[in-house]
Write a structure and sequence with these properties.
Chain A is α/β, with parallel strands linked by helices. Chain A contains 15 helices and 11 strands. The longest helix of chain A is centred in the last third of the chain and has 25 residues. Helices cover 32% and strands 4% of the residues of chain B. In chain B, strands 1-2 form a two-stranded antiparallel ribbon. Classes of the chains: A alpha/beta, B mainly alpha.
Chain lengths: 471, 100
């Protein structure tokens, strides 16, 4: 086995035992980079001094291991573009909190990964530097917006990766690439130094090979940050400690399988099957019939969430991207790509005089209703499960001209993202013909990262979909 | 149904300071109209008495001491390190006032 194919957990173990060296890992990692990066377009930049930085880190938790970083994290010494030509050549003068914590723990940012420009999208096709291809099958998309980071993990071009999610941007590419992706509760990880998109939604998080690796990386990046006032003061816990305690006695609700786009598909089957697996593991599992609950006026559909999300996100985009004036840094506003122009202007419209009440305030009110909905659901259930995406990876070129492509892709995770709760996607199906994957999205209430990790670990162990877990 | 015209797009482009071509105006207007069709479904939801949510985990008035944090402050050189146009330690901006 090549050392770049090791999990975070295993590589640390083998480095400690001196069975492998950090040089081995970098040699194998750069080898696969040289072989495949040109074709797959995963990394936009690489740090050629990574191995030098990796040496003498053996006393730190991450031992100098190579970590791939989404290109919207500010990294001193490595250009940061958020995959937009507006920021072409931008060299950050300060470091994001999340990457700072990873570096302090002995991780090395080996390069910056491709993404949808400004994280606007679910395919990486809106990147100004061309789309990333799915390492599982290069005819297909990796998903997005953290598509480059998910692909870097899937291609073993790193040991683990960092991404960010606004609605689906960690979990959907993790699912499409057959990796594990965790979107923490809003405010559990710091947004400081992450190129701002939807400030009331953005959550940085880990993309990893296994659930255990996810817990390990979350341990390093989670927690309050003085530089981000929206991070929570609630103490973090050791997410590895109770990871293997199982789901016995948990109540789990299955969501969104009765949607017409999903009914009768392998997506529906994989979620229902996951329910059976959790039952066997000792959990109590119910199917939540969204349509029936809707009639009772209790639950809003994911279709409404698309509307709410679109208004909130476009509004926050238009405000956040107003800072790019081309004067202090970056290039002028004529360099925005089509998708960014589209979102900025629609946000400008929904926030403009006469429309802010009609659209933005209405959306924020309905967002409150979603929070109430989920509060009620979590009074009955410990966890909710769904698919993070209606389908497996779509072929290259699927974005086309559809202004709502991303929203339709992300509709199953938009309700939980608007509410700000946590979720993790784990491989839940493998198609032998295409070599593509589905993911299972396990959602928990605010700050219940430990619970979703426990369930995800139990599921990963009980199934054989994760390619890094050898039976 | 909310129909967005090319003129509205042109106005938004001015407000957002984004140059758009005639072709883009039309395609953006079409895209906006399609998007707002989805958004307009929200008008059916009863929100009487519901307050808007701005912060999901319930934080309010997070303040810090009004002190300069030296560690967080960029030096003049750092602040100017990414600009294309500087002069004597200042950013150079376009003239916005016309001369009489």
């Amino acid at each position: 086995m090549k050392t770049n194919e090791l999990t975070l957990k295993k590589s640390i173990e083998l480095l400690d035992k001196k069975e492998i060296s950090i040089e081995d890992i970098y040699k194998d990692t750069w080898q696969v980079y040289e072989e495949k990066n040109k074709e797959l377009n995963i990394f936009l930049t690489k740090d050629k001094d990574a191995l030098i930085k990796a040496k003498n880190q053996s006393d730190k938790p991450l031992k100098g291991l190579p970590i791939a970083v989404k290109d919207n994290f500010l990294t001193v010494g490595l250009p940061t573009t958020a995959s937009s030509k507006v920021l072409d050549g931008f060299m950050p003068p300060y470091e994001s909190t999340v990457t700072k914590r990873v570096k302090e723990a002995g991780g090395v940012a080996i390069g910056k990964t491709n993404m949808d420009a400004w994280a606007h999208g679910s395919s990486t096709e809106t990147s100004d530097y061309g789309p990333t291809k799915n390492p599982r099958n290069p005819k297909f998309l990796p998903g997005g917006s953290s598509g480059g980071s998910a692909a870097a993990v899937a291609a073993d071009m790193c040991i683990a990766a960092l991404g960010s999610e606004t609605a689906g941007s960690i979990r959907q590419p993790a699912a499409w690439c057959g990796t594990v992706g965790l979107k923490p509760t809003y405010g559990r990880t710091s947004r400081y130094g992450v190129v701002a998109m939807g400030s009331s939604l953005d959550s940085p998080g880990p993309l990893t090979k296994t659930v255990e690796d996810s817990a390990m990386l979350l341990n390093i990046i989670a927690g309050h940050d003085d530089n981000d006032g929206t991070t929570s003061q609630i103490e973090t816990i050791d997410y590895e400690k109770n990871l293997k305690n199982g789901v016995k006695g948990m109540k789990i609700g299955i969501c969104y399988v009765d949607h017409p786009n999903i009914k009768g598909t392998v997506t529906e089957k994989s979620v229902i099957d996951a329910g059976h697996i959790f039952e066997k593991l000792g959990a109590q599992v119910d199917q939540i019939k969204i349509s029936e609950e809707l009639e009772k006026g209790k639950i809003l559909t994911h279709e409404h969430a698309i509307g709410v999300y679109t208004v909130v996100q476009r509004g926050e985009v238009s405000s956040n991207l107003s800072r790019y004036d081309g004067i202090r840094y970056g290039h002028d506003r004529s360099h925005f790509g089509h998708e960014a122009k589209n979102r900025i202007m629609l946000g400008t419209f929904t926030l403009s005089k006469g429309y802010a009440d009609k659209y933005y305030n209405l959306a924020q009110k309905i967002r409150g209703l979603y929070i109430e909905n989920f509060k009620e659901l979590f009074s009955k259930y410990d966890l909710l499960i769904s698919s993070p995406s209606p389908t497996m990876a779509l072929p290259l070129g699927s974005l086309g001209n559809d202004p709502m492509f991303g929203e339709l892709q992300d509709m199953l995770v938009e309700p939980s993202s608007l509410v700000g709760i946590c979720g993790i996607s784990v491989p839940s199906y493998h198609d032998g013909k295409t070599n593509l994957y589905l993911g299972l999205n396990i959602m928990g209430d605010y700050f219940q990262e430990e619970k979703i990790l426990k369930a995800a670990w139990a599921y990963e162990q009980a199934t054989s979909f994760n390619p890094w877990i050898k039976k | 149904m909310t129909k967005i015209t090319s003129d509205t797009v042109k106005h938004m482009a001015t407000l957002a300071k984004i140059p758009v071509t005639k072709d883009e105006e039309e395609s953006l207007a079409k895209g906006f109209t399609e998007t707002l069709e989805v958004v307009d479904k929200l008008f059916k939801i009863d929100v009487k008495g519901v307050k808007p949510t701005h912060q999901v985990t319930g934080l309010e008035n997070i303040l810090r001491e009004d002190k300069i944090n030296e560690k967080k402050t960029l030096s003049q050189d750092e602040a100017l390190s990414n600009t294309k146009n500087k002069h004597n330690g200042y950013f150079v901006v376009d003239q916005i006032l016309a001369e009489d």
